[in-house]
C-alpha cells in the first residue's frame, strides 16, 4: 500500500510519488528530466501529472503547483 497525503478539505489522497513530482515540477524540471531523476519513464511522469490534475479538478500543471503551495505541500 502506498503512503499518501490525505487532504481534509476535499478528501483527495495524493501519493508520496505524486508529491515528489509536483516538487520537481515547481523547481522547473520537465517530465523527461523528472523521469530520469526518478528512474521512471517520461510517460509515467505525465500520467502522474494528469492523474493529479484530474483528481483535484484542476485545468493544468500550473494550477497543480499553485494548489500545492496553497495546501502547504510545497513551501518557498
Automatic annotation (TrEMBL):
InterPro entries membership: Sig_transdc_resp-reg_C-effctor (IPR016032), Tscrpt_reg_LuxR_C (IPR000792), WH-like_DNA-bd_sf (IPR036388)
Domain of life: Bacteria
UniProt entry tagged with the keyword Cytoplasm: no
Molecular function terms, GO-annotated: DNA binding
All residue ranges annotated as the HTH luxR-type domain in the record: 7-72
Any one Gene Ontology BP term: regulation of DNA-templated transcription
A Pfam family: GerE
UniProt cross-references to CDD domains, sorted A to Z: LuxR_C_like (cd06170)
Keywords for the protein's UniProt record, in alphabetical order: DNA-binding, Transcription, Transcription regulation
The keyword DNA-binding belongs to this UniProt entry's keyword annotation: yes
PANTHER family: DNA-BINDING TRANSCRIPTIONAL ACTIVATOR DEVR_DOSR
Record protein name field: Regulatory protein, luxR family
